[in-house]
Amino acid sequence: MSILEWMPFSVLLPLIAAPVCALLPGRMLPWLLATASVTASAVIMAFVLPEAVQEPMRYFFGNWPPPIGIEYRVDAVNGFIGLLIALMGAIILPWGRVSVNREVPQRQGLFYALFLLSFSGLMGITLTGDAFNVFVFLEISSLSTYVLVAQGRSRAAPLSAFRYLVMGTLGATFYLIGIGLIYIMTGTLNMVDLAERLPAVADSRAVQAAFAFIIVGIGLKLALFPLHRWLPGAYANAPSVVTVFLASTATKVAIYVLLRLVFTVFGVEFLRQVPFSEVFFVLGIIGILFASLWAIEQDNTKRLLAYSSVAQVGYMALAISFVSVAGISAGLVHMFNHALMKAALFMCVCTVIFQVGSTHISAFRGLGRQMPLTMLAFVLAGLSLIGVPLTVGFISKWLLIEAAMAQGNWFAVVVVLSGSLLAVIYVGKIAEAAWLRPAPEDREPVREARPALLLPMWILVAANFYFGIDTRLTADVARRGAEMLLGISP
Predict the structure, then answer these.
(1) What is the rounded CA–CA span in Å between residue 434 and residue 441?
(2) Element (DSSP H or E) covering residue 57
(3) Residue 380 to residues 1, 246, 274, 389, 396: CA-CA distances in angstroms?
(4) pTM across the whole model
(5) Is the pLDDT confidence value at 68 over 80?
(6) Which of 393, 419, 427 is nearest to 298 (CA)?
């Protein structure tokens, strides 16, 4: 079989493994099957990406070409995102076994089945070339994720899952209305065909309304300020492995869908007729500043990092608002880099929660001496989030500042630097409690986390520095992807 024929299995393998997982007894077998299928997806995407960067790969299901049939179409942009999702799943599942044993002791086969459905949904959204199939996979991923969030041990978990369900359903409905309108106007749902047929009807009110519905729908999914209200509760109250997986993948996939539809389907010429850049610039700026300030106010460490994620979405929105190769490249690089840094940070925080049983910053006092490897990992990943040189965070913000300076937008430069200063404060709150405050006298001695938790965490910390020094994969592929989205290269 060729790489092209293997490509659909990056979605199908976890999708087929999900019902099998639900039937497997005990804890070990479902986890092994879930880990094996996700790792296989990562291996397939690692082979797909180099070929997709050179030339887009198209796979027709049943040998039916579009618009009649369904195709998977992989290029530099979605190959990059697909590899990111698969790699994060392959790293998170080994780390998550300990947490799942503790937080979801019963019916783990069902838990891993839901995880695989969520994973395969995200992969399907990324690889499909059909706008309606994006909706189908969006629902597969979302419905399974709602249930995963509801399995958190916190009493607030069901309420957070319900709020996520309401907001997610609204987002999916808006997206579906938008897709329905452009189908009425063009008669196709294949993205390549849509890109060819939409310019002829771009001046119609129906297409402009479709654009607005799609932007609001995806904005809800990616937690773009002020549509982010579901995210802090979902991240804070979900089981730890679900929090880490969502923080590193879900919003990135939503941003990919936004990029694909806005630039590939509607196109740059259409964007000149609507205030896209202005809206995303303003929402990005406000998101960076206000979400960072809310993060500083938090005492719950998971909510603190969740609000930080809303701020990071603001950076990506700001990068996209420039509608330039430099800006979109910066946004794509930040998507990849933010997955590395935020997954590492959530792993550190959740590991501490396992050991001390509390999410509050006060529970971190004195842990620098009692859990030095975990807290050192937190400090290093936090430096990356702030944007210190030699880390991925620095690369992201440097590229974003370059894109802003290329357009003479010094206000955006000031906001990016201000966001970094605010990150120093909220990351510093936890680091200061761990390293500079004494441990409470009435607390039992806390032991360092076991190697099964430390190893995946430190792999991600190391990746934060490796990709901060060697940017050949991230920056080069992102630039190639940005040129394809803007129609500069085929």
Answers:
(1) 15
(2) strand 57-60
(3) 43, 21, 42, 12, 16
(4) 0.93
(5) no
(6) 427
